[in-house]
């Protein structure tokens, strides 16, 4: 007997595969999901515990207090901020709002895999624009745009490559797009840079009617397990997102934790400095293995994409398995067109030292 039949564009989706946490009696070091290895602010953890007693009540569906805190920190209008179940929820909703089956969505080759999934959920066609040296190429993006393109996604810094384009290039991209195309700037990793608005995206979202910036509490704030994200843009865009988003997207404890986390910018600054220190340390160690065919792609995030020889004993697959055997879970990326690369999240000083020791051991025995 035949059961329900899914829409054909749904069956074309390749399900998102999260980074492995490993298994076995000994808990491995998880460096596969770009999480904050230093955890969350003590203020956030305290607020999380205290808010648990209120879990029998529905949360504030508008996240009013959190929106005002976000707006105060970033100089925004709180009415032009929308919160969601991670920035993922917002990113996924956009093609359902602006695309019809057969329309196209453009994203950068070697970009975040949620973008093509979001496009296909709406029956839209995802189009990957070629990049250059693992970095977004504005001319290639503009050349990929078709008459039926409705959305362009750009992560800056990019995941999984870690590369970033300057604000002048973001502005050039926006200027080259039709006014009916929504430019989505995914700034999930921007807090790892010193500037408050490193690529000018927040300013652009306040002045243009076709730009949306998304951010998350999952990375530097260390709240990935609570799923809190937000976006800002023109009132018309925010209004459409509010029309279709979940009525209570963020739980009571998660709201409390995010509200407290945003108050602890000293913790954010410390994590930024620690991340830079360990990222530079890991990049230097990979650089010393250049004679083995390894390269560290310059990164502005909390991870490094390490390219490996395409043949021989030190392929990306071999290195990925070798690190796993030594207790370090990383991300091998054949499904993203990077079969020759391993993405390594930045860990604590001890974890980074362990990865470096493991890489040295793998290469010495090859």
From TrEMBL:
One of its GO terms (biological process) is L-histidine biosynthetic process. The modification N6-(pyridoxal phosphate)lysine is found at residue 219. It comes from the Bacteria. It catalyses: L-histidinol phosphate + 2-oxoglutarate = 3-(imidazol-4-yl)-2-oxopropyl phosphate + L-glutamate. Its cofactor is pyridoxal 5'-phosphate. NCBIfam families: hisC (TIGR01141). This is Histidinol-phosphate aminotransferase. The gene is hisC.
